[in-house]
Amino acid sequence: MRSLVRWSRPSALSVFPEVDDFFRSFGNLYSAAGRDLPIEIYEEGDDLFVKVDAPGLAPEDVEIRLFPDHLVLKGKSQSEEPQGEKEGRTYHCCRRRSEVNYSLSLPTEVDADRAEAKFENGVVSLRLPKKAKEEGRLLQLKG
Q1: Quick check: is 138 in a domain?
Q2: Which residues form the CS domain (predicted)?
């Protein structure tokens, strides 16, 4: 069974990459805590289900590419809310930007042609039917 693993670009200048990874792991506890998306992957019968929280994104901002063994979810949203009066000077302007770029390895191969996706209350829900296992063809020996 496959599992999700955080990937980080190795440093070409590092003399001891294992030591760098050890110390970097402490920084990841704090810096990445607010950026990770809650993801749920589970199986029910012949289907695999994936749920990804994508707050602040609209359905038209989300792009999902499904392959037999993995899926890629991208989303981008940007808004600008001017504060203050229309005439004169602006003293405060709030800009929000949300960006998601996730690639997930799936624990089993899925049938991309029969997959379904929906977006409800900021949650992307996918139903991915598992690909039927090929048993192979039984050959009869002659002779």
Answers
A1: no
A2: 34-142
Query: Could you tell me the CATH number of the domain that includes residue 102?
Result: 2.60.40.790
Q: What size, in residues, is the chain?
A: 143
Q: Position of tokens 């990770």? A: 36
In a domain, 78, yes or no: yes
Q: pLDDT tens digit string along 9-58? A: 665 666 677 777 776 666 555 444 444 557 899 999 999 999 998 877 88
The three state secondary structure string of 50-100 is: EEEECCCCCHHHEEEEECCCEEEEEEEEEEEEEECCCCCCCCEEEEEEEEE
Compute the C-alpha angle 105/110/116, nearest 5°: 100
Beta bridge partners of 116: 127
